[in-house]
Task: structure prediction
Amino acid sequence: MGDEDHLGDMDFKVTGTREGICGVQMDIKVDGLKMETMREALEQARKGRLFILDAMYACIPAARQEVKPHAPRMEKLFIDKEFIGAVIGPQGKVIQEIQRETATTINIEEVGNFGEVSVFSPAKEGLEKAVAWIKGIVSVPEVGSVYESKVKSVMPYGAFVEFLPGKQGLLHISEVSWKRLETMDGVLKEGDTVKVKLIGVDQKTGKFKLSRKVLMPKPEGRPLNQTQDSQE
Result:
C-alpha cells in the first residue's frame, strides 16, 4: 500500500522452497542495514514461507500432471531449418490456416540450424491439433508406418488420400480390400477417413503407395502376397 511503502524503510520479498531461497527483491530508503537485521528478515521469511508451503501441501501434495483443459498453455517445438518454409507456406498461407483452424498463435524463429516453433493456445484441444499439424508437415513418411488419412479424390482405379499434411498417396483399388473390387462406387467417397499403411515409394517418381487391406484380417486360405492380378 502507498502509506506502508511511504512510511517504511524497506520492503523485502523472499521466495523459495523448503530447501532454500530462489529469489530476493528489496527496496530500501536508508543508507544500509546491519547484518543482524538481514538475518532476522531472512529467518522471518523462512518461517513464513514454510507456513505457506505446509498449507499448500495439505491441500494438494504434488503438482498436477496436467493443467485443466481450458487453461492457457504453450508448447515449443524444434524443427529442421529446411522445414521452416513448409510450415509458414507461400505468403504465410499455411501458418495462417493452422492458426485460424486451431485458434492458436504460432511464432517461428530461426536459431542456428533449427526452427524454434512456439505454439500458444487458450485451451488444450487447439494446442494438440496445432502441434500435430506442424509435426505432420515436418514428418518424413516411413515405409511400414500406419497413418490416419483423409480421402481427397476417388478415381476408377483407386483413391488419393492425404496421410500427412501436404502429403498424398494412391490407395490402389487392389489395396482397398481383400475382396475383389470391380469399381470404387460405394466403397469410399471424398472426405472419408481411412487408416492406411505406407507399403512403398516409387523410386522414379517419388509417389507413395498405400494399402488398407494389409491392416484388415486376411481371409483364411489366401496367401498374404496374393493380389488382384487383373487389376495390377
About this structure: Residues 226-232 have pLDDT under 50 and may be disordered. The helical segments are 2-7, 35-59, 84-88, 93-102, 124-138. The first strand starts at residue 10 and ends at 16. DSSP finds five helices and ten strands in the chain.
